[in-house]
Amino acid sequence: MDTIKRTWELPEEPHPFLKQVTMRVLRSRRDDGADVTCILVRCPAGAEVERHVHPGQDDLIYIVEGKATMWIEGEGEFSLTPGTFVAVPRGKQHRTFNVEEDLLIYDTFSPPLF
Fold first, then answer.
1. What are the pLDDT digits (tens) for 77-87?
2. Which domain holds residue 25?
3. What total number of domains does the chain contain?
4. Is the peptide bond preceding residue 111 cis, with omega within 30 degrees of 0?
5. What is the pTM assigned to this prediction?
């Protein structure tokens, strides 16, 4: 387990289930034996994160760069822009679409997604 990681030194890998989306794993059960998953997610303009649900994890999202629209079950649609924080409760359907500018997202899952 690395205590300090530099994002530019981490490999960019395909997201395990989202097409066109890549990620850099900052901390995970898989790599670090951690009780949380923290990833930097890159979603290119024109891509879409299909409607999905995390039945066992809270999904904590912070938008670092870019512009898109997000929908959460029971909340509706809203804009994603830099500085936006979103807490998606476990079990809630959600999706990201209308990605106008490449998104860079700091995404945390608790308990870990992988």
1. 999 999 999 99
2. 12-110
3. 1
4. yes
5. 0.93
